[in-house]
Amino acid sequence: MLDGMSLEQLIKRGEIVEGMTFNQKVWALCAQVPAGSVTTYGDIAQALGCNGARAVGNALNRNPYAPEVPCHRVVGSDGRLTGFAGGLPAKEALLRAEGVEVRNGRASLASRHHFAPVRVRLSA
DNA sequence: TATTTGACAAATC
DNA sequence: TGATTTGCCAAAT
């Protein structure tokens, strides 16, 4: 299973495979967002075919693969940072370091990332 | 098995 | 603008 690659490795590479839990898919999608870009909780939820933005937030809150899985690039639908396990100031600093504009606790959505439709790899 | 818990979001006022 | 309300959903209790 998993092509001999560890689940952790797949997630960090942003690859989604059948059998992954919702949270694992969230982490994998998050890993697809490049530095300098941002995405929203809602966008990730949609990419997974649901409107559970809150569930996405929960998953990221417990992200066990930080900082390889850059959950700081996920912001609210209006650009507000909304939350970060390491504290909002840290999230803001990370985003700025990557070139994302942050004003008044709000990130610019200009570099919003566009997810490709989730294609679950056929087993074996 | 049922309830509670959030790093959400859109609509309404 | 901001505050409130309601719908959403997987996980953890």
What's the pLDDT, averaged over the residues? 93
Round the Cα radius of gyration to an integer and report it.
14 Å
- How many helical elements? 5
Query: Which percent band covers the strand fraction?
Result: 5-15%
Give the class from helix and strand content and strand pairing.
Answer: mainly alpha
Order of helices and strands: HHEHHEHEE
**Percent in helix:** 25-40%
- Say how many strands there are: 4
Terminal residue distance:
7 Å
Low-confidence stretches: none
Give a short account of the largest sheet: 2 strands, parallel
Shape: globular
Strand order of the largest sheet: 1-2
Question: Would you mind describing this structure in some detail?
Answer:
It is a single chain. With 124 residues, this protein is mainly α. It contains five helices and four strands; from the N terminus they run H-H-E-H-H-E-H-E-E. It has helices at residues 7-12, 22-31, 41-47, 53-61, 88-97, and strands at 39-40, 74-75, 102-103, 106-107. The chain has a two-stranded parallel sheet with strand order 1-2. Strand 3 (102-103) and strand 4 form a beta hairpin. Helix 2 (22-31) packs across helix 4 and helix 3 (41-47) packs across helix 4 (53-61). The longest helix is centred in the first third of the chain and has 10 residues, at 22-31. It binds a DNA duplex (13 and 13 nucleotides) through residues 21-23, 26, 40-42, 45, 50-62, 71, 74-78, 81-85, 88, 91.
